[in-house]
Amino acid sequence: MKNKSLLMTIAILIIALSSVAQETGTFTDPRDGKVYKTVKIGTQTWFAENLAYKASKGCWAYNNDTNNVKTYGYLYDWKAAKTSCPTGWHLPSDDEWTTLVTYLGGANVAGGKLKEIGTTHWDKPNTGATNESGFTALPGGYRYPDSPNENLGYSGYWWSSTEQVNSYGDYWFRNIASRFNAVYRYDRGGKSAYSVRCIKD
């Protein structure tokens, strides 16, 4: 009887997890030959890695160390981010980010479902990380034009293509941090440099 209950529990967990991350695949960027993992979450197909395409301008390796690109991709200012995804893919809009977060249960819990498990790349405690979405969010930090690169290991920041309607020329982005289970939505000027996740057209 106990074995039957255990098997039923395992089956329920498998069904629950498979309902979030349905399909995985790969995409080869024809511009440089880099192969990216992809994942379908709900109706959307995303890169399961940060973009690592070297744009002609407006992108940087964290601390100008190209070894960081292999894991975390480049950091892009908004203008470069808007145009750096390969043909057939694009920088997600604010609404597309919201669709993803809503599908994963809302902003208060979606961060854990997006984050890579463990502390190989994330600082401790990596609160709530399950990566049940298959998105494998990584903490690539940021670059501001008036400050040093910061937060590698602690936070990930990802641009949207959507402008915030204010007088400052800011753009929406998403943030996930090691110590929190949530996904945060903020706006910032386009000269800041954040990671990029491409979404399929």
Characterize the structure shown.
The strands form five sheets. A three-stranded antiparallel beta sheet has the order 1-2-3, with helices on one face. It is an alpha+beta fold. The protein has helices spanning 2-18, 67-72, 78-83, 94-103, 107-114; strands at residues 21-28, 35-41, 44-47, 59-60, 75-76, 89-90, 140-142, 150-152, 155-163, 170-177, 184-189, 199-200. It is globular, with a radius of gyration of 17 Å. Helices cover 23% and strands 28% of the residues.
Write out key terms for the chains shown:
12 strands; 3-stranded antiparallel sheet; globular; alpha+beta; 201 residues
Distance from first to last alpha carbon = 49 Å
Radius of gyration: 17 Å
Can you tell me the overall shape? globular
Total domain modules:
1
Please describe the biggest sheet, giving its number of strands, its sense, and whether it closes into a barrel.
Answer: 3 strands, antiparallel
Outline of this structure?
The chain is α+β, with helices and mostly antiparallel strands.
Chart the SSEs and their pairings.
Elements: H1 2-18, E1 21-28, E2 35-41, E3 44-47, E4 59-60, H2 67-72, E5 75-76, H3 78-83, E6 89-90, H4 94-103, H5 107-114, E7 140-142, E8 150-152, E9 155-163, E10 170-177, E11 184-189, E12 199-200
